[in-house]
């Protein structure tokens, strides 16, 4: 049996096999790496959802006028000069319900994020992400109810005060958050078993 020299072209296959086995990652480490990448991407989407929920709830650009530089939000009516408290439907129960559900969605989304981080390091494998997934699905329901009420009562009606108008970025962000919170919530429930 000859010695294996670096760069020796006459190295036999069976002599090379032990060297390659030590260089290749094991299937379990590959699975762990894929799981870490998946968890990191889910975490980033969850943080993006929280940020977009804050922006969509706070910003007053749910409906934008096509004729003038004005917009309406959940809290105020805005023009170029600034925002005022002159919403024509400010006292209606439907608007208060939308405001409440959007605030609840932010609260549940933040709670779900904190629970996710807590469960990542403390819970055992089988129960790991169930609570964070369930909490995020409650957030999803709150977003759905709030956005649906706003759509039904104000987005496509004359109550918003504009003859010609279109949906603003806050309204669109709300529906994007609706999709993201559902997808991430379901992924948390699926990942609890892995």
Automatic annotation (TrEMBL):
One of its GO terms (cellular component) is plasma membrane. Its main location: membrane. It is a multi-pass membrane protein. The keyword Transmembrane applies. The keyword DNA-binding does not apply. Pfam families: PMP22_Claudin. The chain crosses the membrane at residues 36-63, 97-118, 130-150, 170-191. PROSITE patterns: PMP22_1, PMP22_2. It comes from the Eukaryota. It is found in: Membrane. Keywords: Glycoprotein, Membrane, Transmembrane, Transmembrane helix. Belongs to the PMP-22/EMP/MP20 family. This is Epithelial membrane protein 1.
């Amino acid at each position: 049996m000859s010695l294996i020299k670096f760069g020796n072209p006459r190295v036999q296959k069976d002599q090379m096999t032990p060297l390659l086995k030590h260089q290749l990652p094991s299937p379990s480490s590959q699975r762990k790496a894929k799981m870490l990448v998946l968890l990191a991407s889910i975490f980033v989407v969850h943080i993006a959802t929280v940020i977009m929920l804050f922006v969509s709830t706070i910003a007053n650009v749910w409906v934008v006028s096509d004729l003038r530089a004005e917009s309406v939000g959940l809290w105020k009516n805005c023009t170029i000069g600034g925002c005022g408290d002159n919403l024509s439907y400010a006292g209606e129960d439907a608007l208060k319900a939308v405001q409440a559900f959007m605030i609840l969605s932010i609260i549940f989304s933040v709670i779900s994020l904190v629970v996710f981080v807590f469960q990542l390091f403390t819970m055992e494998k089988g129960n790991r992400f169930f609570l964070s997934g369930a909490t995020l699905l409650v957030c999803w329901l709150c977003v759905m109810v709030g956005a649906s009420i706003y759509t039904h009562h104000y987005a496509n009606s004359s109550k918003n005060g504009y003859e010609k108008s279109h949906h603003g970025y806050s309204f669109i962000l709300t529906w994007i958050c609706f999709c993201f919170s559902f997808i991430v919530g379901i992924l948390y429930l699926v990942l609890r078993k892995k």
